[in-house]
Amino acid sequence: MLSPLGLSPSFGFGDRLGLATPGHIASVKGTKFAPIFAQQSIRENDRTGRTPQNVIDDAKRAVDAARWDSAWGADADHLKAVDDLPPFVDAGYTFFTVDPGEHVDNSADTDSVEALKQKITGTNWDELSALYLIGNGEQAWGQFEAESLMRATVKYGKAIQHAVTMYRHLSDLKDAFDFEMSVDETDAPTTPVAPRPRTLYRDTDDKKIAGVCSGLGHYFDIHTTLVRVAFVVFTLLGGAGLLAYAVLWFAVDRGSTPQVDLERSHRYEPNPEPKQTEAA
């Protein structure tokens, strides 16, 4: 019976011509897996001159010949546009795999923070930061920081929006179906979120002299005042604090303003409200 399989354990066999389906049926009998026998992408159909209906008809003939009477699915693979959906819906496909790879912004991996800020304007940043930054601990995929969340939003935001659009159009055409999003044809790999390594820099936005103490506070995640007190104490006890400060002043680079902003805050406001000033 051709039908959606839901969350049941399933296995996609990927038969394009129906010739291998008898062997697939023999291999899946007696297992816990629900089979997806018919499977072909819109691109393969274009190249071979076949139609979605041809593919599913061939699979049905093999299923009927083998007297398979359990549930099975048919996968419309690598659908990229709304116009790709109707032929597969009309043919009776039950599983729809959307490929929004063309909407992935691969340059987000190497964009500067300023470029990311420009690209993220107009997104639902407040909602995303509330979900993934504020009070959110370590997850299975890692933990977002402000910069890594911006990169993920810029890289995949439009792709996710396109997948949502495809899903809504499909919902208008068909009541019950299985839906999958697959991003597997892009220039950049998809990886779990990795914590961004801490960088030691001089925070000249929060400095008394050169920003050394403030930078050390950010790096070790301790209050800047404690670092400053430690330098004073070691200076009074023999001058080691003064020497260390001078060495760090010379050896450690000044942090850029975007970098400092991201280290000092877990939240980035892309469109801050202008400050109200009183008339003199």
Task: Provide structural commentary.
The chain is α/β, with parallel strands linked by helices and 280 residues long. It folds into 3 domains: 10-98, no CATH class; 102-178 and 185-196, no CATH class; 212-264, no CATH class. It is built from 11 helices and 5 strands; from the N terminus they run βαβααβαβαααβαααα. It has a 5-stranded parallel beta sheet. The chain is elongated, with a radius of gyration of 28 Å.
C-alpha termini separation: 79 Å
What portion of residues belong to β-strands? 5-15%
Label the structural class: alpha/beta
Q: Which runs of at least 5 residues are low in confidence (pLDDT < 50)? A: 256-280
Number of helical stretches of at least 4 residues: 11
Quick structural overview:
This protein is of the alpha/beta class and 280 residues long.
